[in-house]
């Protein structure tokens, strides 16, 4: 049953019928609770955004292939006073990765590639690393390939700068090293899924957008879903992305057209059809669903939670498959409990919203009778002892003598950018491509820090500083050499 408006409520009689049909399988309602009670509790979770002067969220709750509750909270477009509905089109960021991985698996079915192919088959311009990077490594984020968004940021690109697919491939190809040997670690990298989209292009001669439309979206009937590779394109029903300010909201946007790592525009109603895919064989062969849920394995045998653009985990005792996403004001998550045939989709157009938490809280309400008790501390949360302030990393005194030692220009061939360490008014300042890059602190001997970055200085046999290695989250061991 497809959503037809802002709010969908189904009568208790209808829900009773669903329960009877679903006998013998997990059900989402407790006998004592009415549909209205559940919906009211869900609405409370979203009450902060359920206003005509705020961006917000679209919500879809799916049971046994039906949208049992779908509605919008807040506004899709503040300038034109357009409310959010289940048909509003949202950018879903990295939640797109599952569609990219599916396209690669379809190409494998067609005999066009193998997951164990060395990526040099498709990208001869990328350097020969000591161990080969495979398509499988890209899918599971075990390739060691440095994240291109982080690389562009480190190269001094601003958030609203424009660059092309070709420039991104060239940036990746300039990297003489990987973050780690392929298969040794799991480190999320948008480069992997961007390269997967380029593999689709280089094999088929068609863009990921065209291939996904023909092989995935059209067969599933997802008429309002596409990979968005043209920032100038008009998209009917599109929600705008926003970030909060001290006095209201600002519009977020991008000129970038990279897809694969993100870029899908879709709706709650279309994602209902995507949910159907996981319980049938409308796309690909029957073995395809197993491959989509097959998690990666490291070289030492460690099994990961990450499969083909999907995270396979356990939430409150129930098996859960999910993937979140975030980009330019948009936030998204789609969580699925396969054994309960129950899913929650939460799409937001406000950067301060946390759809992952909200989707799980919705599941808490509907699946309360099936779940284990809520843990004292949820996964990923640490409880700070009462009365203790948050610890601040210790820094050492940067003397004038040390700042004079560190002062200089450092060049990265892989980024093609110059970093300068410059003493200014008693502080050491980092400048990137001539622009301010932040205040530098001293963590230990020859280890410098700026927010989110660590600089490990190295010296020659005479003790003179000759460069540093930069670590910045999804980019590790990036070499800079000191210029005379």
Describe what you observe in this structure.
With 484 residues, the protein is α+β, with helices and mostly antiparallel strands. It has two domains: 91-366, Beta-lactamase (3-Layer(aba) Sandwich), CATH 3.40.710; 400-482, Beta Barrel (Lipocalin), CATH 2.40.128. 24% of the residues lie in helices and 26% in strands. It contains twelve helices and 22 strands. It has helices at residues 12-21, 35-45, 97-109, 135-140, 148-154, 165-173, 190-204, 208-220, 268-277, 288-292, 355-366, 400-406; strands spanning 7-8, 57-63, 66-73, 75-77, 82-83, 90-91, 226-227, 241-245, 248-252, 264-266, 311-315, 318-327, 330-337, 342-348, 408-412, 417-424, 427-432, 435-444, 447-450, 453-459, 465-472, 475-482. The strands form five sheets. It has an eight-stranded antiparallel barrel with strand order 15-16-17-18-19-20-21-22. The chain has a seven-stranded antiparallel sheet with strand order 1-3-2-14-13-12-11, with helices on both faces. Strands 6-10-7 form a three-stranded antiparallel sheet. Helix 2 runs antiparallel to helix 11, helix 3 (97-109) runs parallel beside helix 7 (190-204) and helix 3 packs across helix 8 (208-220). It starts with 6 loop residues before the first strand and ends with a strand. Residues 1-5, 7-32 and 380-392 have low confidence and may be disordered.
